[in-house]
Amino acid sequence: MTKPVTLKDIARETGVHVSTVSRALDPNARTSLTTEVVERIRTAAERMGYRPNRLASGLRTRRTMTVGLMLPDIANTLFPPIVRGVESILEPKGYASIIVNTDGDREREGKLVDVLLQRGVDGIIHAAPYRSDPRMVAVSRQGMPMVTVNRQIENSQIPAVINDDAGGIAEMLHYLYDSGHRQIAHIAGPQTLSTGRGRMEAFKVATRELGLDLPEHAIAVSSHFDEDEGRRCTRELLATGWKFTAILCANDRLALGAIDELHRHGLSCPDHVSVTGYNDIPFLDLIPPGLTTIRIQQFDAGRMSAELLVKMMTEPDATIPRTTILPVKLIERGSVKRIT
Amino acid sequence: MTKPVTLKDIARETGVHVSTVSRALDPNARTSLTTEVVERIRTAAERMGYRPNRLASGLRTRRTMTVGLMLPDIANTLFPPIVRGVESILEPKGYASIIVNTDGDREREGKLVDVLLQRGVDGIIHAAPYRSDPRMVAVSRQGMPMVTVNRQIENSQIPAVINDDAGGIAEMLHYLYDSGHRQIAHIAGPQTLSTGRGRMEAFKVATRELGLDLPEHAIAVSSHFDEDEGRRCTRELLATGWKFTAILCANDRLALGAIDELHRHGLSCPDHVSVTGYNDIPFLDLIPPGLTTIRIQQFDAGRMSAELLVKMMTEPDATIPRTTILPVKLIERGSVKRIT
DNA sequence: TGCTTTTGCGCAATCGATTGCATTGAACGT
DNA sequence: ACGTTCAATGCAATCGATTGCGCAAAAGCA
């Protein structure tokens, strides 16, 4: 690699000291320097193709202008829009981000946090925390600016940007109720995740408020937010013998699995059973019968989490909202049938 | 942030010089040190929770153990699997990656390369280059290890890991031919990209070899690999009045757009017109009529590109294949109808 | 004009880890 | 027993940028 131009090179070229060059190139501290000198240095820097060495400046200032972005899995379509939202704020401000995939594995999460710390990130945006996540809480307590997005760590002071799960689930349940459904099953997400737990709690609250008296086995709990678990939980529900007319699923992939499993049992959606999802992942509108779901604002959630993080990194004493809840929207498609 | 433990801290604690600590902790250079000392230092380091500062070591050694990963858009489902493939190699070796999204914008690409250079990346994996991309070629010429994946920069020495476009297109065309189709249109990808250009050339070659005599306007060229352009090109094809029975599209999203546009004109796929895609993006099997397409190996492409890059970074004199072509596979679904 | 204040810039330490060279002490050979 | 060799560790420079302090010259003041 051709040796890059350094401050020293510019200093030699312009006949001044490197500290002068440093000051001349610093847009903030350009105090007490002749404009003539500043101009001379800046043109020289430009001409020589100077690019500041972020490593060196990071070492000295203890600010690397790097943030860590922890995801469960970038290949899960839920997360790329969050990433873009985050970048939309960070990149213009000069931050670069290191993305790591935890695969929902606590041990990996631990290793990856270490990786981020070794690289001296200025802050961390965590889209894959567990409801209880002592390690991340500890890192945060040590003073590392941190925000969670999409999920949250319960009983912690870590700011979270989440979607209105309670509102979304309630709205969906009312929608099913208004469509005539009374026997409504729920395929819940993993109870170790705030989204899985929160949506299940919301389901219980909302059914109670509606006066629905559902059997104990109306809820099947999945261990992963994926199609296979959607299928397994559907089998579990069918095996109870209970005659439900709708399944409210904690996310879209569980719902896709549920629809598939219903078909295998000769039950069609929505003719025999209505199914609803959550998140509104891409291409859902093209997949028959068109999953009725709750659209969440992934990009905005990413954007807002980055805004909060920047504030935490640059204004340590600023007041940061503990929880930011974004509104959601019911998307009506074909997977819910009105019954009488 | 609580001050991290440094070599100096360990040196003070164990009563030796920092250079001794450095050597004791270096798995390679642990030569000529008493095992007793090494052991004492290593346990102390462990106990104190030492984490090496990658910035400092990178500054000194000029190896940051960081690579840049340039994508068009992480939200495009084609790319996350490539990213995971890349990480599967880099992460275990201690590399972190900085991901940037070019959005197919040359100016942005330039800025982002600068960002990567400032951060002293040891190498770059580029999944979003143009067929002609002088800036990236220049960076490569300066000695920056670089590999392109999925696409390639033509007339350059930059190693590329790509899929067998010629083979895939030929296979698909033969498949259509064998299904009785003779009037076959092509919606080509952007001609500024090696994939768009290459697949179109392959289409021409393969039609010639089959003795198909297609009209000039059998090919509609898109400006982006997306649904809207698929629709526009389909309108263009329909407007010619030529009676084609199949459209071979340069990628899946163009194909989805094409099917949609055909429907709007009262033409169904595959009953009136057969349509084929390329890439085999997720959920395609769930979208009727099931797009017949070519499956490419994204994860493996990512993995191999990372393997090549690692080799370039660690063995500067190693021989690196200029082009690595991965096999593809035709996935038969319902969007092609056999005609007589 | 002589003294104080301000301005403009250089000096040198610093961030944490690495590494060529110097040094010390012990082992070795004769 | 004494010079030589080698093993084990210390010393100090270095990577590139930043920044508190200091110094000299210029400006301001009476």
From TrEMBL, chains A, B:
The record's annotation in SMART domains points to: HTH_LACI (SM00354)
Can you give the residue ranges of the HTH lacI-type domain? Answer: 5-61
Source superkingdom: Bacteria
Under the heading InterPro entries, the entry gives:
HTH_LacI (IPR000843), LacI/GalR-like_sensor (IPR046335), Lambda_DNA-bd_dom_sf (IPR010982), Peripla_BP_I (IPR028082), RNA_pol_sigma_54 (IPR000394)
Q: Which GO terms describe its molecular function?
A: DNA-binding transcription activator activity; sigma factor activity; transcription cis-regulatory region binding
Record keywords? DNA-binding, Transcription, Transcription regulation
Q: This chain belongs to which protein, by name?
A: LacI family DNA-binding transcriptional regulator
